[in-house]
Structure formats: C-alpha cells, structure tokens
C-alpha cells in the first residue's frame, strides 16, 4: 500500500510530513483532513504517538473499520525504512472498542522498538524516552562512518566522534533538537488575545476560560459565567464526542467546530487542540473556516477581523481569484459549447443548402460555383435527351382547381425524380407538365441511351400510378427521345440553371410532341444506339416532323432483358413478402367466416391452406 501511494504521486507530500518518524505519524491526521476535501467519502483512521510511564513509545490507532490494524505495522515499517533509514519493530499491546459519536471505534495500541545498524546498544539522552537503538555490525555502515570521520574538520575523541557521525546520519536521530523555553511568558494577556483573536481556552469540564477578542465580538455569550463549549459549538471533524478524553485521543487531528447560535450562516472554526497540563486546560488555536469572500460576508466578517499573520486571509483571496478564474473558464466552456452547437446547426443548414444546390445543378458544377470559379460551357459529342408531357394537360387544367393540378404533378414528378437516381441520369428541368432529362451529360457515359430508354419505360409504369383528377383514371404521357451532340453550361446569376443547347434538344422535343399517348417515340439516332441492346422496338415509319421534314421514327415497347421491378428499382424480396402478408390476411378473413364444423374439418382432415394460390388443398 505504501508503494502504491508513492507511485500515485504522494511521495513528495509524504516526505514533508516530518523530519522524524514520530513527527511523520503525528501529521498523518492533518494529511487525511486535507485529502478529505477532495475525497468526500474518505473514512481515514487516526494515529497518535505517546510515551508510556515506563518510557516506552506507544502508537494509538483508531478506526471505524474493524480488522485493518494488521496492515499498520507493515506500512509504518516501510515508511521508517524508506524515509528515515531505520528499522522499526512493532507489537500489539492491546486491542479494544470505544464508543464515539459515529459508533464504536477500534482502538489498537502498538509498541515501538527502533533498530539501527551499529555494534552497540546506546541510550541517547537527547532522544525521546524509550527509543533504544540496537546496533549491529555491517560493513556498509562502517564505510559510511569512515567517510564521515574523514569529512569532520577537527579530530575528536571516540564517543564524541561516534555521536557526531551518528547524529549526521539520516534517521530518527534528526529529531534530537531540545527546545529552550523562557522562565516566564513575555506577552501580555491583552496582546495575546489580540494576536490570536479566535482562540479558546476551556477546562476539563468544557467551561470556557478565555477567548480571543473577535470570538467575543461575534459570539458574545462565550464569556458568561456558566458558558461551556458544547453549548455553543459542535465538533464537525473528527466525529468524536465533545469531551476532553475524546479530544486528547485525536489531539493530532485538525478540529473543525461549528457554532450553534447563528443558524442561517453558522461560523465554522478550524484549528488545533493543545493540552496544557499545568493549567489542566485545552487551548483551541483556530481561525474561521472560509473559502471565499462570499462566505466571509455571509458570517458577517471582514478581512480586518482576521489576524495579519493568519494565512486564512491569503487563502480567501487566492481562492476568490481561483473561483473567478474557474468562473471565467466555465464561461469559456459554455461559449465553446454554444459555438459547437451553433457549428453543428450551421453544418446541418449547410448540408440542406448543398442538397438544394445539388438538386438544381450538377455536383461538380455546384462545387465550382461555391469556390468562386467560373464555369465554362462544354461540348458533349453524344448524349440522349428525353422529353415528356401529360396528354390533355390543358383540358385537365381547365377542369380542375389549381391545387389538384399541383398535387398531380408533384406525385408524378416525385416518382420520376426517384427513377433518375435509379438509372443515374441528370434531370435538366421541368416546365409545366414537361419533364426533361439527359443521359451522358454532365458525366459522359457510353450507356447513355440504354439508361434513358430504361428510364422512359419506368416513367410509363410510374405514370399509371398517378390519377387524373378529372376522370379518376391513370394519366397518360407522351415520351420522346433523341441522341446527338449538345452544348451545356450554366446560364444566369440569379437562380442559375444548367442548360443544354443545340439541335439535339429541338429534335428530342419534336419526338415528344409528335408521339402518341402512352408511347415512347424514338428518333433514328436513338434507335441505332439501342437496336443492339436487347430492347423491343417497333418501326413507326416516316412521319412529317415540324421543322425537320420527313423522319423515320420508332416506338420503344419494352426491354425483355430487364424486369419491370428492376426498372422501377423495387426489391423483389420485399414485394414477395408483401404478397405473402396480403394472402395470409385473406386466409384469416376467410377462416373467420367459416362455420365451426368447417374449421374442425380443416384441422382434423389435414387440409392445408396455400396462401399463394388462395385456396384449400389436400
């Protein structure tokens, strides 16, 4: 577990907890309090080191989770070896359960024995009582001692030399500093209360004995004669009962107290507890727990109420700056999200615009216009053009409401447009009831005539599915085809169109106008392009064509090589499925109308219904 913590990036933080193992353990609770800010569900144990009456060093371990104390020795030994270059032996002295506010806590007491690598056992007076160092011979350690001796500026006697070398080694001996205390406290009571405006001193019975000036200001009842701590505060962290005994168990923890009096915005205090044996009292040296200027205002405080040496002032200001930066970051993120949504919306609108543009112009022509390029007219040596119109369209328009005409043309043109995608030909334009397409333009293809011919056959089939609003019968169309060269280009700037020019266009229009209802009229050049393609073509003979004189023309009757479903682009399997569903529905209706006796005969005599023939068979 210790190795995992190091690999997770906590190595530097752990090394800074203390210069000795005792200091390290004493600051673990503070580290856990810090980590709890990021990990709300964290349920950390608590550690406390004390000296027993016989001088033995004891480690007290408290935890809400039972059975985990077995891993403590391994972790402490790994820390001692890795950070302080010492070996620690730990044994369990006692194990019990104690009642606290959150329930029963497991309390395990371990005894320390620190083992180092020298020949003798020495009791160092500067070490805390109970720390005995056991030395054993090791060549590597003597080498380090020799190197240390050579580095010393002055030659010393044996014990002084050993002491200086050992004290310079990395290990528990780094904590041998002995502080010097004054004979009397050179600070006035008034100065102390002003310097620490949020401190509290209370006795074993929790009675308040002394407070800082600002606590008197914001919680004036604290200095009344019978005021006790538990009347004004609740312990938020650690979650222990408000007694001196419980507090002393977790003396290394950071204590957070919340005031009772102001329920709208209670003041929270954060600090450390210090036990004073001579006064039999506890000193709570604290400051307000604040994270932002808003919280400072909510509890009615100002920055001037915080002592100048109190880092809470800097933390509030730094955190306020961080909050402002976070708000700015959030605003940027919201703007970015709005831009992403707007970008997706614009992309969708762009696709709609491009689809509309591609419906009006060939794709490569439209792309050239979008790029600001000029589109030059191009010659196509060979292509096939088709014109069609509705028979008696003028009479239909005279007898119907305009909306009926629109619905009829929309139904017909929607079917024709689908066929252009199936046969990969280009729709040039529609004018009234006239429909014009071309094969081999704008992308040349050797099968232009075959594609347009199959499309014409599909048009005739599709037209039979459109109803004449006057007669209620299927409409009839005339279709004319001609093959020849054309000139193609974009005409106009407002609503530009891709148009075809040349005699081929005029001849194709004449083929349509001189055709017959429900027939596909072919010119000689189109016939020559289709005659070897397996189409069923009938010669019409010579006819007088306006502006062309006598021409030999033909009728396209069908294409035996391709089924009507293939021409219409219909799925054979789907059509068959629909037929079976229709026949099965018919069987169900017939079966429902049978008498009980007939139904009984069907199942008993083995009659089977054939949905494809819609009759009963044996």
Automatic annotation (TrEMBL):
Work out whether the entry's keyword set contains Transit peptide: no
Q: Does the keyword Transmembrane helix apply?
A: no
Q: Which UniProt keywords apply?
A: cGMP biosynthesis, Coiled coil, Cytoplasm, GTP-binding, Lyase, Nucleotide-binding
Any Gene Ontology biological process: cGMP-mediated signaling
List the coiled-coil residues: 318-352
EC number(s): the record gives: 4.6.1.2
Q: Where is the Guanylate cyclase domain?
A: 384-512
An annotated GO cellular component: guanylate cyclase complex, soluble
A GO term, aspect molecular function: GTP binding
Chief location of this protein? cytoplasm
Q: Where in the cell is it found?
A: Cytoplasm
Q: Name one Pfam family in it.
A: HNOBA
PANTHER family assigned = GUANYLATE CYCLASE SOLUBLE SUBUNIT BETA-2 (PTHR45655)
* Similarity comment: family membership: Belongs to the adenylyl cyclase class-4/guanylyl cyclase family.
Protein name in UniProt: guanylate cyclase
Which species is listed as the source? Sphaeramia orbicularis (orbiculate cardinalfish)
């Amino acid at each position: 577990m210790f190795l995992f913590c190091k690999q997770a990036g906590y190595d530097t933080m752990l090394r800074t907890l203390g210069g000795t193992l005792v200091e390290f353990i004493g600051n673990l609770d503070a580290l856990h309090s810090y980590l709890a800010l990021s990990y709300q569900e964290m349920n950390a144990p608590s550690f406390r080191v004390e000296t027993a009456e016989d001088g033995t060093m004891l480690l007290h371990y408290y935890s809400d989770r039972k059975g985990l104390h077995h891993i403590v020795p391994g972790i402490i030994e790994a820390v001692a070896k890795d950070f302080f270059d010492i070996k620690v032996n730990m044994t369990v002295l006692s194990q019990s359960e104690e009642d606290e506010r959150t329930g029963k806590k497991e309390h395990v007491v371990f005894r320390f024995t620190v083992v180092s690598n020298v020949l003798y056992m020495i009791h160092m007076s500067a070490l805390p009582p109970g720390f005995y160092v056991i030395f054993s011979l090791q060549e590597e350690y003597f080498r380090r001692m020799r190197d240390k001796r050579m580095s010393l500026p002055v030659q010393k006697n044996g014990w002084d030399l050993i002491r200086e070398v050992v004290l310079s080694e990395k290990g528990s001996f780094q904590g041998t500093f002995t502080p010097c205390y004054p004979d009397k406290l050179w600070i006035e009571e008034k100065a102390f209360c002003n310097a620490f405006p949020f401190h509290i001193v209370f006795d074993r019975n929790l009675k308040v004995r002394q407070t800082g000036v600002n606590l008197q200001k914001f919680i004036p009842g604290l200095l009344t004669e019978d005021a006790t701590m538990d009347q004004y505060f609740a312990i938020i962290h650690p979650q222990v009962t408000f007694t001196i005994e419980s507090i002393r168990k977790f003396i290394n923890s950071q204590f957070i107290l919340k005031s009772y009096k102001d329920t709208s915005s209670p003041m929270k205090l954060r600090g450390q507890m210090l036990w004073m044996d001579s006064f039999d009292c506890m000193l709570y040296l604290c400051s307000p727990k604040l994270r932002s200027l808003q919280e400072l205002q909510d509890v009615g405080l100002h920055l001037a109420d915080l002592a100048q040496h109190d880092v809470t002032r800097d933390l509030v200001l730094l955190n306020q700056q961080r909050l402002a930066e976070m708000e700015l970051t959030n605003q940027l993120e919201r703007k970015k999200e709005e831009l992403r949504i707007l970008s997706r919306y614009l992309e969708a609108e762009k696709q709609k615009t491009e689809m509309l543009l591609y419906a009006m112009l060939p794709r490569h022509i439209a792309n050239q216009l979008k790029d600001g390029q000029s589109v030059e007219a191009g010659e196509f040596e060979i292509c096939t053009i088709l014109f069609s119109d509705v028979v008696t369209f003028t009479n239909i328009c005279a007898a119907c409401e305009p909306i009926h005409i629109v619905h009829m043309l929309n139904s017909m043109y929607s079917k024709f447009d689908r066929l252009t995608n199936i046969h990969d030909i280009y729709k040039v334009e529609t004018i009234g009831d006239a429909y014009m397409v071309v094969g081999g333009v704008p992308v040349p293809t050797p099968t232009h005539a075959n594609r347009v011919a199959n499309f014409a056959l599909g048009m005739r089939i599709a037209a039979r599915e459109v109803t004449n609003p006057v007669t209620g019968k299927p409409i009839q169309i005339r279709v004319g085809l001609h093959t020849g060269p054309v000139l193609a280009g974009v005409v106009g700037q407002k609503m530009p169109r891709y148009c075809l020019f040349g005699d081929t266009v005029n001849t194709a229009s004449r083929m349509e106008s001189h055709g017959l209802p429900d027939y596909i009229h072919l010119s000689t050049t189109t016939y020559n392009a289709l005659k070897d393609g397996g189409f069923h073509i009938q010669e019409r003979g010579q006819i007088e064509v306006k502006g062309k004189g006598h021409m030999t023309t033909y009728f396209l009757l069908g294409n035996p090589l391709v089924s009507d479903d293939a021409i219409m682009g219909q799925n054979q399997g789907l059509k068959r499925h629909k037929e079976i569903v229709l026949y099965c529905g018919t069987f169900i209706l017939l079966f429902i109308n049978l008498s009980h006796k007939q139904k009984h005969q069907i199942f008993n005599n083995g009659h089977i219904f054939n949905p494809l023939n819609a009759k009963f068979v044996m």
